């Protein structure tokens, strides 16, 4: 089916948003109080969806720090356990050691951030290529995951 033909599907201009909420007013925050009142009224019918909708839209203004599910323990001297190794056939690998918790979450986040492949081996995470600086910046930005 061609991309342009969508029979029977009507697209509405506001898609369930309040009519006074535009992208520009959302960015400037000028309608935050008005929109949150409208949002509270529209979501009061379904109490389960109200918290999810407010959290997804971001009107509540609460910034809660979430735990990511993994921790990286520093070395005895207080440094980050990031090393760089040369492997067979000239392959370069960045190794993050002392990972506790779910190391797969750390690997997925780093793969998204850096754009390189990787693997989890025991308590270590290995990334393809020399990415020591990017990994260090990532871990320092997520201080809740450092012990």
Automatic annotation (TrEMBL):
Q: Where is this region: Disordered?
A: 1-20, 37-58
- Show the InterPro entries listed in the entry: SUI1, SUI1_dom_sf
Report the residue ranges that make up the SUI1 domain in this protein: 80-143
Ranges annotated as biased composition (Polar residues): 37-53
Q: What Pfam families does the record tag this protein with?
A: SUI1 (PF01253)
Compositionally biased region (Basic and acidic residues): 8-18
Residues of the signal sequence?
none
What name has this protein been given in UniProt? SUI1 domain-containing protein
From what organism does this protein derive? Porites evermanni
């Amino acid at each position: 089916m061609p991309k342009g033909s969508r029979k029977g599907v009507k697209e509405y201009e506001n898609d369930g948003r309040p009519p006074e909420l535009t992208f520009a007013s959302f960015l400037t925050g000028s309608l935050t109080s008005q929109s949150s009142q409208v949002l509270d009224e529209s979501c009061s019918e379904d109490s389960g969806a109200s918290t999810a909708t407010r959290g997804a839209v971001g009107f509540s203004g609460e910034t809660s720090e979430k735990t990511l599910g993994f921790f990286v323990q520093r070395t005895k001297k207080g440094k980050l356990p990031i090393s760089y190794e040369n492997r067979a056939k000239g392959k370069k690998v960045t190794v993050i050691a002392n990972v506790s918790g779910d190391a797969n979450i750390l690997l997925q986040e780093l793969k998204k951030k850096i754009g390189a492949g990787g693997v989890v081996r025991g308590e270590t995470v290995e990334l393809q290529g020399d990415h020591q600086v990017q990994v260090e910046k990532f871990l320092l930005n997520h201080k809740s995951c450092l012990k």
